[in-house]
Amino acid sequence: MRTLLALLVTAAVVVPLTTAAARPRIPAPAPAALAPLTAATLEQTYAANRADAALASRMAAAHGDRHRASAVRALAASSRRLLSFDGRGSGRAVEVLGDLAHADRVAVLVPGSDTSLDTYERFHAAAAALRQRLARQPGAGSRTAVVAWLGYSTPGTVSTTAITPTRAEEAAPDLRDFLRALRTVTGARARVALLCHSYGTVVCARAASGVEASDLVLLGSPGTGVASAADLHTRARVWAARGDDDWVADVPHVSVGLFGTTVGFGVDPMSPAFGARVFAAGSGGHSDYFRPGSVALANIARIVLGETSEVPGA
């Protein structure tokens, strides 16, 4: 097992290093200086971050990176609601879909590997699909909001960072801080569901004990780094789902010390031993949990809306 993991680590190092070396650093402005986040400052925050995204797009275009310029220009559109934006490096962005100030239920999406400003529209599409599914629900759906939280530097799928907890440990304090700030906008009345995908489930597991959420949903998880849902030390209901065609089912659920760090994330959250509420996700693959019309999306929406008695098991 140690030999196999050593080979995986070695292979994971080579590809990212050669890829990173081939791409020059993209210039971008520092994040905008913002007033403390409250319901009263939301529109001001959105406007400042759109302006920052527009500047980042112009700087990327001047640098010759048309792909980044286009991706960031989309975030600068007048319809976008950015709670935060940082165009430096792989980039970070936190976006609201819906009326956050008046929402009774808020879903916060935490992405997995290979999510960056360059691939952000794919993440946005997932958040938009959930928002549209929630809005179809009479009554409750009109008072919902979805937050796409790209608030950390995600690992590359083929990299050592994807099989170790380092990025998750770095991200967890930022996720906790964000969720506390979110409460200054929504107030204590809003119920928050934390929807975590792939490596994002490791991030959520690290943050779980310090966040106030009604539900913690683990989608396509490679493991969380803990042995059971009880070890997350959260009052949230813990859910888990995996599509029938999700390749993460073939990931070895091991956790060993190697080269001074921990490799792998241990117990499968889908297993009875973990103790999560397992629900049906249909026949989709690793990127299909928010696909419009899917079983997974319908059940995720039910969880967000608190209609848990209607969520079928896997």
Topology:
Layout: H1 2-22, H2 42-63, H3 66-75, E1 81-86, E2 92-98, E3 105-110, H4 120-135, E4 144-150, H5 166-186, E5 191-197, H6 200-207, E6 215-219, E7 237-241, E8 256-258, E9 261-263, E10 277-278, H7 295-305
Fraction in helix: 25-40%
Quick one: biggest sheet?
8 strands, mixed
Lateral strand order in the biggest sheet: 1-2-4-3-5-6-7-10
Can you count the beta strands?
10
Query: Could you say which structural class the secondary elements and strand pairing correspond to?
Result: alpha/beta
* Uncertain segments: 1-23
Mean pLDDT rating: 88
Characterization of the model:
- The chain has 314 residues and is of the alpha/beta class.
- It is 35% helix and 16% strand.
- The protein has helices spanning 2-22, 42-63, 66-75, 120-135, 166-186, 200-207, 295-305; strands spanning 81-86, 92-98, 105-110, 144-150, 191-197, 215-219, 237-241, 256-258, 261-263, 277-278.
- The protein has an eight-stranded mixed β-sheet with strand order 1-2-4-3-5-6-7-10, sandwiched between helices. Strands 8-9 form a two-stranded antiparallel ribbon.
- The protein starts with a helix and ends in a 9-residue tail after the last helix.
